Amino acid sequence: MEHDQGGTSLVPAGRLTAVAAAVGTAGLDALLLTPGPDLRYVSGYDAHQLERLTCLAVPAAGEPFLVVPRLELPAAQVSPAGGLGLEIVPWDETDDPYALVSGRLGDVASVGLSDRMWALMVLRFRAAMPRTRQELASAALRDLRAVKSPAEVAALLAAGEAIDRVHAQVPAWLRPGRTEAQVAADIAEAIVAEGHASADFTIVASGPNAASPHHTAADRVLRRGDAVVVDIGGTMPSGYCSDCTRTYAIGEPPPEFAAYYAVLQAAQAAACAAVRPGIAAEAVDAAAREPIAAAGYGEYFVHRTGHGIGLETHEDPYIVSGNTEPLRPGNAFSVEPGIYPGPHGARIEDIVVCTQDGVRRLNNVTRDLVVVDG
Ligand code: ZN
Ligand code: ZN
Ligand code: ZN
Fold this sequence. Notes:
Blueprint: H1 15-25, E1 30-33, H2 37-43, E2 55-59, E3 65-69, H3 73-78, E4 87-91, H4 97-105, E5 110-113, H5 119-128, E6 133-136, H6 138-146, H7 150-173, H8 180-193, E7 198-206, E8 227-235, E9 244-250, H9 255-274, H10 281-294, E10 306-308, E11 315-319, E12 332-335, E13 338-339, E14 346-347, E15 350-354, E16 359-361, E17 370-372
Parallel strand pairs: 1-5, 3-4, 5-6, 9-17
Antiparallel strand pairs: 1-2, 2-3, 7-8, 8-9, 10-11, 12-15, 13-14, 15-16
Helix pairs in contact: 1-6, 7-8, 9-10
One zinc ion (ZN) is lined by residues 231, 233, 243, 245, 336, 349.
């Protein structure tokens, strides 16, 4: 989170310059970033979303500035943004911060608004700058954010190791008679205990619920013979996210389950092995889909193979049919095929990084089916 001169930190010196250049390349005059992942990526400032406007303006040409409510000024100054040499402009309760931003920017033809900006702020900026075209900041930030620096890869690896440590504990919590919700509560506690700042999701999908890819943990009681899909993740203090799925069996699973679990494991390995610079994102999806279809389970693989991950759990690049963009070293994303024929299902998910010559997996807890003693 700290900035430094050597470029080894998550917000290296030079990021603002690189972002300003990307703003120009995207054909925009400025970015306006309110609290969220875009602001954190550009400045390191992990500010809260509030109704009072906090906004980093990054013009393509000219000096960036950070507008903050006066009561947030001390927090902004001690944040990494305070070390970037930015002008920080406080506004008082009776000021109009939208007019303040607009006045400082001058007459600009277009602005890129952070993708997660509240509509409240989008519309107030529109009113303050009625002749300015509004676009998404991702037009400028997408390519930068999708290619992780070595420091970002290290942060994602730390997240991966932390969630792997949680998965290593899951078998002990999967006991017949317990509910999905009880297991999810154990998992949420462990996600934080293993180093995350927050537990973001705890999918525990047992028995027939395992056939629903985004089932949330509920009151169903675990039974012998259940397959249990456990898809969990959190956000580290660095801001970087984890996301890992393993499927467990309580006692012996149904024979047909064991058959397609082996297909799934091979498909997930094939998709990971396909990752290298220059290969199209959709080719990784195809590498997962083909062996599953060949084994007759194609209709039960009902979602894309993966999503990018970084300061958000789901971000570019998406590993999906139709995405022809070539992968680049530094792209980080999930590889998570699933087979959901009902009345059970399975998914295996790792976060991987495209390297200079191949792939690196950031999750390494076993992908073999873990059969816990029922
Ligand atoms: Zn998902
Ligand atoms: Zn997941
Ligand atoms: Zn995922």
